[in-house]
């Protein structure tokens, strides 16, 4: 018997109206699975932040979410510009978002800090000019 | 009483089995089975969208009839503020209130009066509970029901104060008992409602143990008789002053009215069930945390948009605005005795009705099967199978309440396959040797 499922989402870049579709779908599936509201909240918030980052900085990418009874693993992979200074990017309030993005209410510099806050494990692998892979884990 | 009671019903004889309601339902609670629309009760939030959309008028709202007045020795009418937006050239709310008495009620208690008390209480509550911001309005029963089944993380943000109708009912009963000396059961507290959700809220309340409302009449039903009663009393010299509310109370009838009563700018007011869902989704993802208050109404325009009203909601809003122009801001202010009646006494519990399997392992397998079926189905969301979308059919199949071949497109492929096989048979019924 299979005891995990992997969901794959293509996130398109530069389309804010569609940003959040993937995390919204995961959210509704987790509720259908009877995952506790608290865990759904953690996954929804961290994945939404990651998804938005992909749209803003990396022209989209691919998200793979693996759900099993003990944990939810989110892998967000993009071929964007990469993060020059991960440590700095992790600081609350640090933002590189241009003004037109900020005026939409995004880019407050809380994306990565929130992703870390709401997940149990988080790892960023990034290479300038090649792309970034963010792996997040929420333990159930 | 069943905790999933709902007031929306079907008149089978009128239902043609079309797909209008299944497509419109915001919680995908309706399926067409054997040519008739069937509501899954636990998914239904009584928003009334199916009543609004049904071209055959097969969807009805269950509510009481005016004859209910005969069951009581003394009756009090509780008119919703939205009722005031239903009449042309109305100058004085007292014409409606006296009209209600002429209709057969012994007394009238304006829900808008209780609404001002709720505004008073909410103002204080919101200011004192920063940790709960943004606090979500609990006045629309459809919204509370939606949150209960779909947004468990937001239950704690609900304003734990009674809806104006429930506070009005408590206060009206207390007043009537004092005035008449009658025991509680001989007094009938009757709400004049713009929507079916209020019927459910009375039968199976959330947040309170028992509603003090004894019956619910629909605005639409009493409208013609009320209009003639209003014509009869209109020119009376001795028109009794029965009003107890001002601008704040009356404004509750439309979107933004409740939030305006909080006297803060830090709020968002959304109306229309699809917009409400979007706001709740965003709230759940913590997209806006800086607001103090979120007002949500399932109907477009607010309560004036309820399916049991008569007037176009936007016109009704204009009429409310005109009517309240010269009214004082508010006429009712909360006393500690009234506040005693005002708070919720029960917890709203999460009802995970959309859960697929018994446990996580089973659910994972079921979701995997849903995904597989979605690949197989054509993705047209045509509704011919009786489910609103291909995904909904896939979920039904996995739940064991529908069959793959309910999809007419898959069924057609299946028939082709069989007919091909039959054409391969020779006269003796054996499969021909393809050589």
Number of helices of chain A: 5
Q: How confident overall, as mean pLDDT of chain B? A: 93
Q: What's the multimeric state?
A: heterodimer
Q: What letter string, H or E per element, gives the SSE order of chain A?
A: EHHEEHHHEE
Secondary-structure-based class of chain A equals alpha+beta
Low-confidence runs of at least 5 consecutive residues of chain A? none
Which pair of chains has the greatest number of interface residues, and how are they split between the two chains?
Answer: A-B, 29 and 24 residues
What is the rounded distance between the termini of chain A?
Answer: 20 Å
The unreliable regions of chain B are none
Ends distance of chain B? 69 Å
Strand order of the largest sheet of chain B: 6-5-8-9
Number of domains of chain A: 1
Backbone structural class of chain B: alpha/beta
**Could you say which overall geometry of chain A the principal axes of the C-alpha atoms support?**
globular
CATH architecture of chain A: 2-Layer Sandwich
Q: What is the H level of CATH, i.e. the homologous superfamily of chain A?
A: Histidine kinase-like ATPase, C-terminal domain
Beta-strand portion of chain A reads: 25-35%
Strand order of the largest sheet of chain A: 1-2-3-5-4
Helical content of chain A, roughly?
25-40%
Number of helices in the DSSP assignment of chain B: 16
Overall pLDDT metric of chain A? 89
């Amino acid at each position: 018997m299979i005891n995990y499922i992997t969901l794959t989402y293509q996130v398109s870049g530069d389309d804010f109206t569609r940003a959040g579709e993937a995390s919204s779908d995961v959210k509704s599936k987790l509720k259908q699975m009877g995952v506790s509201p608290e865990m759904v909240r953690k996954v929804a918030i961290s994945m939404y932040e990651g998804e938005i980052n992909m749209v803003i900085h990396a022209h989209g990418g691919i998200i793979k979410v693996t759900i099993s009874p003990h944990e939810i693993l989110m892998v967000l992979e993009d071929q964007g510009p990469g993060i020059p200074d991960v440590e700095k990017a992790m600081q609350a309030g640090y933002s590189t978002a241009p003004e037109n993005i900020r005026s939409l209410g995004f880019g407050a510099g809380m994306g990565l800090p929130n992703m870390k806050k709401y997940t149990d494990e988080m790892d960023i692998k990034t290479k300038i000019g090649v792309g970034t892979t963010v792996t997040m884990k929420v333990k159930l | 009483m069943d905790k999933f009671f709902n007031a929306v019903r079907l008149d089978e004889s009128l239902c043609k089995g079309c797909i209008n309601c299944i497509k419109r339902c915001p919680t995908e609670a309706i399926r067409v089975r054997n040519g008739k629309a069937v509501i899954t009760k636990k998914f239904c939030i009584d928003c009334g969208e199916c009543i609004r959309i049904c071209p055959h008028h097969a969807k009805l709202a269950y509510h009481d009839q005016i004859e209910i007045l005969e069951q009581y020795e003394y009756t009090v009418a509780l008119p919703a503020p939205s009722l005031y937006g239903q009449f042309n050239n109305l100058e004085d709310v007292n014409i409606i209130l006296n009209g209600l008495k002429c209709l057969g009620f012994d007394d009238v208690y304006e829900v808008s009066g209780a609404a001002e008390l709720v505004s008073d209480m909410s103002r204080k509550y919101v200011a004192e509970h920063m940790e709960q911001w943004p606090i979500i309005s609990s006045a629309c029963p459809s919204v509370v029901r939606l949150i209960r089944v779909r947004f468990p993380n937001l239950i704690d943000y609900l304003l734990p104060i009674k809806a104006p109708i429930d506070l009005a009912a408590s206060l009206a009963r207390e007043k009537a008992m004092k005035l008449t000396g009658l025991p509680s059961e001989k007094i009938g507290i009757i709400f004049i409602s713009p929507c079916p959700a209020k019927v459910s809220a009375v039968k199976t309340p959330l947040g309170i143990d028992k509603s003090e409302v004894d019956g619910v009449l629909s605005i639409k039903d009493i409208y013609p008789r009320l209009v003639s009663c209003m014509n009869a009393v209109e020119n009376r010299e001795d028109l009794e002053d029965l009003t107890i509310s001002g601008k704040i109370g009356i404004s509750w009838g439309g979107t933004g009215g409740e939030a305006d009563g909080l006297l803060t700018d830090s709020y968002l007011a959304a109306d229309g069930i699809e917009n409400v869902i979007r706001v709740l989704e965003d709230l759940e993802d913590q997209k806006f945390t800086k607001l103090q208050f979120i007002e949500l109404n399932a109907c477009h325009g607010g309560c004036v948009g309820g399916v049991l009203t008569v007037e176009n909601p936007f016109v009704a809003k204009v009429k409310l605005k005109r009517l309240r122009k010269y009214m004082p801001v508010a006429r009712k202010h909360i006393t500690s005795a009234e506040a005693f009646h005002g708070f919720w006494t029960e917890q709203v519990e999460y009802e995970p009705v959309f859960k697929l399997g018994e446990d996580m392992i089973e659910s994972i397998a079921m979701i995997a099967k849903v995904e597989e079926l979605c690949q197989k189905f054509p993705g047209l969301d045509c509704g011919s199978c009786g489910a609103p979308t291909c995904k909904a059919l896939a979920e039904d199949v996995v739940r064991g309440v529908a069959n793959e071949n309910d999809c007419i497109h898959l069924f057609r492929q299946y028939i082709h396959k069989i007919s091909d096989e039959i054409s391969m048979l020779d006269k003796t019924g054996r499969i021909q040797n393809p050589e």
